[in-house]
Amino acid sequence: MARVLVGVKRVIDYAVKVRVKPEKNGVVTQGVKHSMNPFDEIAVEEAVKLKEKKLASEIIAVSVGPTQSQEVIRTALAMGADRGVHVEVSAAEYELLQPLHVSKILAKLALDEKADLVILGKQAIDDDANQTAQMTAAVLDWPQGTFCNKVEKTDAGLTIVREIDGGLETIKTKMPAVLSADLRLNTPRYATLPNIMKAKKKPLKKMTPKDLGVDTTPRIEVVSVEDPPVRQAGATVADVDALVAKLKEGGHI
Ligand code: AMP
């Protein structure tokens, strides 16, 4: 049976209107609601489903981030993960943490924990990098199944249906492997109150990148963060003639 490592990132909640800091070096995070990255909920759900089908023996939820990242680990534990690993970095370091750093951390943990499967989200909705799963597979030299729409365990390994431009692609891979969860892979369950209570008692190990021998010095410098251009307000026109006149006036036709 597989031991599964799941990556859960704490990000600004998807429903929050993100604001750029006046210094244009990042976005406002203080006093802003944070949650588990939505694609990571799907990754956790897939791991829990494997365990329910007796195809996984243990689920380890990992989050790299500041102290508050423990909240998303607890959510993963309430959804059905067995134990958590919090790789702690300061809030300042977290802002500069890049997918390559996280990939090296996850890869080292996957080896230390003897994982057979690493399941991540397809992308984190804060930096939209879509790099961590691919780079984790590269660091480990394991096969990867990205943008998973369906995952089936077979005797030889896994059959994976992937979401690609214009359709679905089916691939077969051996284990160990790294997967990334796309939106339609499953519908994540809600953590129930009794499970939230139980999750408080599940083990949560704390470590640092240094414990894992990973150097988190930034390799990329953020030059500027800016709001998207403000869209001009639209106007309602009475009929097609007025529309055509307006378009001509604006030099569009
Ligand atoms: P990204 O490559 O940044 O878009 O992230 C893709 C996926 O990698 C996320 O959905 C998570 O599953 C995982 N991941 C990224 N950053 C972290 C982190 N700090 N802690 C745990 N998992 C992470």
UniProtKB/TrEMBL annotation:
Localization in the cell: Mitochondrion matrix
GO biological process annotation, one example: fatty acid beta-oxidation using acyl-CoA dehydrogenase
InterPro entries for this protein: ET-Flavoprotein_bsu_CS, ETF_a/b_N, ETF_b, ETF_beta_N, Rossmann-like_a/b/a_fold
An example Gene Ontology molecular-function term: electron transfer activity
A GO CC term assigned to this protein in UniProt: mitochondrial matrix
Keywords: Electron transport, Mitochondrion, Transport
CDD domains per the UniProt record, alphabetical: ETF_beta
Start and end residues of each Electron transfer flavoprotein alpha/beta-subunit N-terminal domain: 24-216
Main subcellular location of this protein, as a coarse class: mitochondrion
SUPFAM superfamilies per the UniProt record, alphabetical: Adenine nucleotide alpha hydrolases-like
Entry superkingdom: Eukaryota
Pfam families: ETF
Purpose: Heterodimeric electron transfer flavoprotein that accepts electrons from several mitochondrial dehydrogenases, including acyl-CoA dehydrogenases, glutaryl-CoA and sarcosine dehydrogenase. It transfers the electrons to the main mitochondrial respiratory chain via ETF-ubiquinone oxidoreductase. Required for normal mitochondrial fatty acid oxidation and normal amino acid metabolism. ETFB binds an AMP molecule that probably has a purely structural role.
Family: Belongs to the ETF beta-subunit/FixA family.
Subunit and partners: Heterodimer of an alpha and a beta subunit. Heterodimer composed of ETFA and ETFB. Identified in a complex that contains ETFA, ETFB and ETFRF1. Interacts with ACADM.
Name of the molecule in the record: Electron transfer flavoprotein subunit beta
Organism the protein comes from: Drosophila busckii (Fruit fly)
Organism lineage: Eukaryota, Metazoa, Ecdysozoa, Arthropoda, Hexapoda
